[in-house]
Design goal:
The longest helix is centred in the middle third of the chain and has 52 residues. The chain is built from 1 helix and no strands. It is mostly helical. Helix content is 59%, strand content 0%.
Length: 88
């Protein structure tokens, strides 16, 4: 069913563990270090993005609340008198 592309598992029937060469171990350490640096950089970017989003949201909320408060304080329509209708 297409399982021929999967590499077989290593069976250590003789009790030995598979031995990796020193170059392979060094390469694995380099890759792990690069991956750790990449993850830390992504975490910093995510943190900065969240802070920026919160600041923008707070600004939008502040403007919205200010505009609602400003509209409540306007009284120019409170003393509005209806014009007298002219009879013909």
């Amino acid at each position: 069913m297409g399982d021929s592309n999967i590499k077989p598992k290593i069976n250590s029937t003789d009790g030995k563990t598979p031995v990796l060469k020193q170059a392979e171990l060094d390469y694995m350490k380099i890759i792990e270090q690069k991956n750790l640096e990449r993850v830390q950089k992504l975490q910093q970017i995510t943190k900065r993005n969240r802070i920026t989003g919160c600041l923008i949201g707070a600004g939008v909320l502040g403007i919205y609340l200010y505009s609602i408060n400003a509209v409540k304080q306007e009284t120019f329509l409170d003393d509005f008198e209806e014009p007298v209708k002219v009879q013909q």
